[in-house]
Amino acid sequence: MQCQQLQGGGDAPPPLHATHQICFCRLHTTRAIRVDGLTNCVVYTGAVAGSVLLHKCSGCTLMLASRQIRLHTSTECDFYLHVHSRPIIEHCSKLRFAPYPLTHPLLAGDMAAAGLKQVGSEGVAHLWHEVDDFIWHKVQASPNWSVLPAAERACSSVHESFRVDWSPHSEYVAGKFDPHPIQQEDSPTDGSAEGGQGAQGSSSPPSQPPPAEAKAAEAADSESGESDDEL
Fold first, then answer.
1. Average pLDDT over residues 105-125
2. May I ask the CATH architecture of the domain 2-173?
């Protein structure tokens, strides 16, 4: 894999354009980064004091630490984020998110210089998965993004300047934020109801009242001298 060093950006940095497994790395603090049209690439950044703006990317892995992140018209990318506000996506699909695992000896100082809290700090630790999809207006969760399962997380860096450290993200590593698995039904028991009741059915069929209610109904019938057959 070819590796290139990202240049520091101002308020309107030039965009990155590349394809075919190129790794971009920005080790030190920068103001802002714009990414446009990457395919099958890897992007690593340290502290970005402002925003990361990304357009038209596919098949990429990006590990980003910044104040704000906005993602547009991109698909099938994995994002590892440390961010100070909720990530925003628009016209995207098949995006996956995880917390930011990168570290290097100067990262703590760079974070402070950029005005960013340290990775895993209270108030920002979980913002990586509080994604806002600006084109999804339904009550249900957006289908355009999901949490990257902990079992599929990156465990090493492809760039020698960074190493991967998951210790600040023990909840994620333990699978707390993983997509919920499909619930399996319990094994049927000898007393389970037939006709599609399944293992979660009650011990009495729905049409049969509980024993306490049945006894009360019998007592009421005996007092009135009537029964269901007479009615």
1. 95
2. 3 Solenoid (2.160)
